[in-house]
């Protein structure tokens, strides 16, 4: 069934507290989606972030980001006062996140709330239900706190190697600190479930995003080293990346440890199945990042400065997805299959039956009339995007094209490239008219935002993951325009058609 949605990270929501949260602004955006005739809200990964602030390098694959806690809810619960909340500086720029200011203020507020929190039966039940991942996460965060924020690979040997006696001695001494991190996740769990239930009541499905790899410095790598190709000190022999290609002469080094798929297969992929189980508690649909990695993956010798010595290794393939579909027969997934199309990746996508992705911006740069991203080459079982979090906004992108590319895209979408605002909406229209079952457009494109609203610049660590929407920027007029477009191209929810 045809449908449409908007890509809008939670951290980008408007907020008086420095960053988007699970607050009234999230509920208002769901109302906006419904008014605009949309069916989906796509978010970026929601895990706690570490150095670099990238949601694709989370500290945990199971926990939620404590920065997403709605402070107004804490006030209503009587855990903090408004005066306390407003006494901190969360950054002065309403359009960009100041992570330094956020770190200094948000943690102090959460500590105040924890001191006043009285754990009840619901809290105890939550901690027991989520114990498989929550205990390791709380322990990891507390150990990191008392080791000056260092990577777990630089902790004392007993902690690094998870020696039971060393860990138990630490827990006996610092147990109440572990409880602080459990408290955060309990509050987040309640707030998320409430928001998710509201989205469902309005006919909005949430598309979540799962990173493929674990971050090197993460709870996952520390607690699940048995499932990774690392030695007893946590050092990998190979790391993840991308072989040299048309986009990069020396390839890319991502630095993540690689999975030991042989061990995971023997364990019936239990960690991955638990990870998907957690994801389906949070989301209605999952966008699986780097789907290619399940077919084949690049292994680069640890310590190399380029990926030129990398080798391709076979992933678990359909064996993994058979186990996944047996466990979760009703799973809904979008496969992020961007990049070079290898026979192995194409076959795996076909065998799974999952929809792949078409990014419209890619259709007009470098491939010409042969690009499979052109709308007349799309397939119904796919998802079309104008761009993603890794792309420039469509307005910024137009300014990067050479004369040939501008002429090509102008003719293809029947638009005046010298009227940038009009072009962006024509570009969105081109995505909407695709035969792809689902169309997702970043909110910045509907707002005709430029470079200032870009989410991520791959290969750069500067000014990423910072954009957020100014307060009161979503209007009934904009919702009406989106609704009209959605209706024209048969993408309204079933009950509205």
Radius of gyration equals: 23 Å
Please bin the fraction of helical residues.
40-55%
Q: What is the count of DSSP helices, taking H or I runs of 4+ residues?
A: 19
**Strand portion:** 5-15%
Main sheet?
8 strands, parallel
Low-confidence stretches: none
* Oligomeric composition of the shown chains: single chain
- Strand arrangement across the biggest beta sheet: 9-6-3-2-1-12-11-10
- Judged by helices, strands and strand pairing, the structural class is alpha/beta
- DSSP, total strands: 12
Gap from first CA to last CA: 12 Å
Overall shape: globular
* Average pLDDT reading: 95
Keywords summarizing the entry:
497 residues; alpha/beta
Brief account:
By secondary structure, this protein is of the alpha/beta class. It contains 19 helices and twelve strands.
Question: Could you explain the architecture of this structure?
Answer:
This protein is an alpha/beta fold. The protein has a domain at 224-354. The protein contains 19 helices and twelve strands. The strands form two sheets. An eight-stranded parallel β-sheet has the order 9-6-3-2-1-12-11-10. Strand 1 (3-7), helix 1 and strand 2 form a beta-alpha-beta unit. The protein is globular and about 70 Å long. The protein has helices spanning 24-35, 71-76, 82-86, 99-116, 121-129, 131-145, 157-160, 164-201, 219-223, 261-266, 270-282, 292-295, 318-327, 343-352, 394-400, 403-412, 420-432, 443-446, 476-488, and strands at residues 3-7, 40-42, 205-210, 238-242, 252-257, 285-288, 296-301, 311-314, 333-335, 356-359, 382-385, 438-442.
